Amino acid sequence: MSMKYSAIEIANKIAAVDPTFRIPTDEQIPIIQAPLAPAVVIAGAGSGKTETMSQRVLYLVANSIITPNQVLGLTFTRKASGELSKRIKFRLRQLKMAGLLPDHLDESELTVSTYHSYAGKVLADHAIRIGIDADADPIGEAAAWQIAFEEVSRFSTGDLPINGSTNSVVQEVMDLSTQLAENDRSAAEIIDYTEKLLNQLSSFTDRQTVTVLEFKEELQQRLAILPIVDSFDRRRREQGLLTFNDHMSIAARLVSESKASESDDIGKIERGKYKVVLLDEYQDTSFNQIKFLSNLYGNNHPVTAVGDPNQAIYGWRSASSETLDTFSQSFNSKALRYELLTTWRNDHAVLDLANVVIDQISTQKQISKLAARPNAKTGEVICAVYETAVQEADEIASYFAKYWFDKDREKLTDDKKSTFAVLVRSRSQIDLIQTAFSGLNIPTDVVGVGGLISTPEVADIIALLRTLTMPESGTALMRLLTGPHLNLGAKDLMALGSFTKAFARANDYSRGAQLKQALEENIELIATADEFAAGSIIESLEQLLILSPKELNTYLSTPNFSDEGLARLRQFALSLRSLRRNLNGSITEAITEVAEFLSLDTEVLVRDGWQTGRRNIDRFLDEAAKFQKNGGSLFNFLQWLKIAQDAEGGLKPAEVDVRSDAVQILTIHAAKGAEWDFVAIPGLADRNFPNVGKKSDNWVSNAGSIPVSMRGDFEQLPSINFENFSTNKNLKDGIENFEDQWKGRKAVEEMRLAYVAITRAKHGLICTTSHFRNGENAVAPSRLFEIFANALVNIAGGKVELAETAPDGRNPMKENPVTGTWPQQSKEVLRVREVAQLVEKSEPYSQSEVEALINNSSDSEKAGLLTDLKMIINEIKNKTLHQSIVLPTRLSVSTLLYLANDPKELALRLRRPMPNHIDKYARRGTEFHLWLENHFKHPSLISMDDLFNQNSISPVEEDAPLDKLQTAWLSSKWANLNPVDVEVGFETMIDTTLIRGRIDAVYKLDADHYEVVDWKTGKVKSGEDLVNASIQLAMYRLAYAKLKNLPIEKISAAFHYVLDDQTVRPADILDENDLIKLVTQIPIQL
After folding, report:
1. How would residue 806 be classed by pLDDT, with cut points 50, 70 and 90?
2. Which long-range contacts (CB under 8 A, 24 or more apart) does 694-699 make?
3. Stated pTM of the model
């Protein structure tokens, strides 16, 4: 490989046009100038691997070894691929500016992608060979969960011996499906293996221990679930609903078969396109990804695998820390090996603690440690134990506040300000941490779906939705009763609890019991709101509305309801009835309606300001929209959220955009790849971090995992050789030995997770725990905390704060609860209320007083506000008593109706135009019209005017759900008639005003008689309402007469109210002269 320019020469040329460019180090130069051959680069956290890889591409391009379009870069997230692509292209443009590349060279042809996207592209190019449609976008986890839920529900009515709740079985189905795809296995193979194993174990005649019995139960559970997994996978393949894992699995198989039987034609094509391949975060690649890539680019193709074995934290998805060590074997290549160990991120104290963790990870082999950059500062690491979890959260917030409110920081622009993050191992910690920061007026941003669920506003929405859809959701209801919407105090909560118990005792055969019996006996019930509300506290709320005062008193005991509390509960019960009856729309509609009912818009705007207040609600709506895109129901969405909330590491981590305007709170898994100036790691308590998990992911005790011997990476994992066992005692010992090895492996992975968490911090790190967590008894600091605390004694910048001794007795938060006023008012609400009261009491300023204030003010912002106030006073003073409003020359039919119904309101809208809110009833009407167009095989002609004016008439009638409208219309007489025209758009002059609109349908009743029909999806109108609405028909009739050159008397007009199957033909509708009088009643005086 000839070299025109060295890495240093290229760097010096770029530095001449960009003084901030960092000259490569002695550690980076060998990697940049490496020969065109396979290589493995061990790159520690913050070691500048992205910059090194981009300079490697510069070197190859500048020396004419490759062109930019011959480079393939792969990484795991769109964010990471975007950053790598942007960096390389930016450096290539600088190379042009430096005169080392010709101007015509196109850097935009560079290919940097995610692993899954690249596999999807290869699959799409060659999918025709195996007869699948790979053009559709892969479905996400939420959509896959929906399908799994449906399959489990379908199978649960059969005879399969399945144990566990629906949600737990769905999760096992999802896990098994993923592992089958990751390891290129089929359900049939696992069934065959399991049946043979059970048959072998049945020959053991000695007594079976609990360990053996539980192992066999898991085998049986897996056997029972595998047919569901097979059905789940087959359904998705048949319907083209493939996941990212499916794409990778199929692509790997396709490439493997091509190599074996098609002369490696796919590999030849890809190797011909890409002379150099860069694999980022290689330690996170799974068996199938390695299989896919090694079959394409094995046998000494120039592949550079970059990764950090200390950051291998995805063992549960078949990614192993050993992949870097086995690269040469996997790719059948002789790979060069390099190391990048100088970190450009961490200060000394943070780095020294990270190296202590590396020592814990490298128990079996020596792993190189990180070195600090030349100008690294000392940094700061604090390790502390507090008494309670509340105090722990408060101290973290106080530590951050010291830097957050630094005067020098406040002067900086957002992109220069320091950044902050709290990295949790368990999401249960988020609420306390958010509360602590809120108390100091520091905004927070919870990253990811699981974290989003924990934010107060989203938690309130979910609580109300569960109360509305799940009759037994008493816990969700209690959140609402004690929250800001009802603000019930302790006395009324106790009264409600006493009433609920008394009513349940006196009415064993309550409506809740009736509903339960009906469901068990398949009795058909009408699902009215009242019947749906059956169950415990929710049912008792209904009884507060039904019972007379005398009847209610028979169930009451001390304490009694307060008058205000009882009034709030009754009003809330009425609201629940109304909300339930309106839950027929989409998931996003339900969320929007619930948020409006809870006044969350106002609450979050007061709390966080208009710029960011709605952020969490909008993100939650985005997640709901993704879920409903695949036809998901509200009930299933709430079930899936429960899974998302419980899965600490199971859901796909969010891609993190580091920001300086909020303290970001996220899981450690989600934090990988990001960095912040200051980081907190709370919850270093026994069993929490390191985390032991609610259920092990080893196949012996988890039916959602496939046997180790069936995994592609089995050689790197603990195993059991059942051929060595002849008795149940041997089997028990073998199982327990395997479980110990598996726990040891998971413990090392937790250490790697700790390494990831520590190395996210640039300058400051605080690692904490508390003696008392959520339970009553004290919890010891974890082994990880002890390692940190012992190490910090010898680390410059380290500080350890330990309580004298572990306390005895119960949690002080349980033993001596904090007393105070409850319900508690937020500081922001009290401040807004105080300002409002001051405004009410204040006397208005005169113009001269305002001018004096402006002249005497030294505050430019205050003077500007006062100047605006002066201009408003002048505008009011000079405003004439009346103002004439002239109609525009073009009107929609909807506006014409407004003109007839309320001309002054129309004038106000014309004077100050505001965007119309298109509510759900108007949307349902539009959906019905679109369905009807499709029924008539007629293309949509809905105009923009129609869409933007469909809520302009007030009040809006509540439409029925779409399915009921469809059924009702198909049973009407109109369904058997063929219209002569459908969706007739028109523009007609009335005097000098152009009226535009759209006629739903026109029927020819006899040889010379036509009827214009407008479909109505609301309630039947009569009286004055009908007279006003008939203006619409008058305009349609006149427009059609002019459009078709027909005598107007030959055209009749009718409303057909779809749900009631009632056709109304108003008498004496307006003629052309009457319509002219209507539009000429101008100008309108205001």
Report:
1. low
2. 694/646, 696/739, 696/742, 696/743, 696/746, 697/316, 697/746, 698/738, 698/739, 698/742, 699/218
3. 0.69
